[in-house]
């Protein structure tokens, strides 16, 4: 069953990264406003070429078009590889049997502990690994640049996240997503991605032109009000994760969002820039005081991520 269409589209702030070198303070101020009011914004002129973005979409479609038995040969192990439809439920409180999407995860390219990336065979998809590695490196660079501006938006030194051990060896994951157009007949509301906030630090999302992404700006209020996020050609959609909310004592928002099926096939690519797993995430001194004490205890980044990921995959 499809939900009724949403009538209202959200007008998100647009951050132009091309002027960050000459006007970094102004850009940081704009980011601060976007992070406190929305937790979402568009990032334009980010330096990732349009042709590379299109190449990644092309290669992603090639992979997801393979027979299921071929994709399952690269089945998810240690957080990397393929997950079929219904394997994940981002909102375990729902009665849904899982989210109507299939995914492929690529972790840090240099390896990270037990994480060893899985790749389709060169014979089957000759350009796949090269394109994905190039994109991973480019979007990681954008994410680091953005993190410096976010630090400045918090009145911190631009290399703050490097100094505290968050991005000295970042825990970046590229998540390719495919939402099928067709779905089984059911009386239950089906979600492409059920309602959730991202777990980590910063997410950089590239989408095709098919709608479906929605946000709920007030996640604790009922009833929830959902607004559509429009596609902006060439732009990344940026949103903050829960660890950024913990760092800032809820000054910066980790916003609830979901993807609703529209009856059309949809592709997207999310890059999660998360801290080094050994980084301790605790309230910034500038974000708490006697009248606003820390809302969250310090936590090791890797422990927090593991608990959230396990809940999404093993609660079905």
Question: How many DSSP E strands?
Answer: 15
The CATH architecture is Sandwich
Through-space gap between termini: 20 Å
The number of helices is 7
Order of helices and strands: EEHEHHEEHHEEEEEEHEEEEH
Helix content: 25-40%
Q: Give the biggest beta sheet.
A: 8 strands, mixed
Mean pLDDT: 92
Strand percent estimate: 15-25%
What radius of gyration results from the CA coordinates?
19 Å
CATH superfamily: B-lactam Antibiotic, Isopenicillin N Synthase, Chain
Poorly predicted residue ranges: 1-7
CATH class: Mainly Beta
> Which structural category do the helix and sheet elements fall into?
alpha+beta
- The largest sheet has its strands arranged as 2-3-11-8-13-6-5-4
State the CATH topology. Answer: Jelly Rolls
Overall shape: globular
Number of domains: 1
């Amino acid at each position: 069953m499809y939900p009724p269409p949403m009538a209202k589209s959200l007008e998100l702030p647009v951050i132009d990264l091309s002027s960050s070198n000459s006007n970094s303070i102004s850009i940081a101020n704009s980011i601060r406003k976007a992070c406190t009011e929305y937790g979402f914004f568009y990032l334009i002129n980010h330096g990732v070429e349009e042709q590379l973005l299109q190449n990644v979409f092309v290669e992603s479609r090639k992979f997801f078009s393979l027979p299921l038995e071929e994709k399952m040969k690269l089945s998810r192990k240690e957080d990397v590889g393929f997950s079929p439809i219904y394997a994940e439920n981002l909102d375990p409180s729902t009665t849904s049997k899982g989210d109507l999407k299939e995914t492929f995860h690529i972790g840090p390219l240099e390896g990270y502990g037990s994480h060893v990336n899985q790749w389709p065979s060169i014979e089957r998809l000759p350009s796949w690994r090269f394109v994905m590695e190039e994109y991973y490196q480019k979007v990681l660079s954008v994410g680091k640049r953005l993190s410096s501006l976010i630090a400045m938006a918090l009145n911190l030194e631009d290399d703050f996240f490097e100094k505290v051990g968050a991005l000295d060896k970042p825990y970046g994951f590229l998540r390719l997503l495919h939402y099928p157009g067709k779905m089984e007949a059911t009386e239950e509301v089906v979600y492409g991605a059920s309602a959730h906030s991202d777990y980590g630090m910063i997410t950089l999302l590239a989408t095709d032109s098919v709608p479906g992404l929605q946000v709920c700006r007030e996640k604790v209020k009922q009833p929830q009000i959902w607004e559509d996020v429009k596609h902006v050609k060439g732009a990344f959609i940026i949103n903050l994760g829960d660890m950024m909310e913990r760092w800032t004592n809820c000054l910066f928002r980790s916003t609830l969002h979901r993807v609703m099926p529209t009856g059309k096939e949809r592709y997207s690519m999310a890059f999660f820039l998360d801290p080094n797993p050994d980084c301790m995430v605790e309230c910034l001194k500038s974000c708490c005081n006697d009248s606003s004490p820390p809302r969250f205890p310090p936590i090791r980044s890797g422990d927090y991520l593991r608990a959230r990921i396990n809940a999404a995959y093993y609660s079905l």
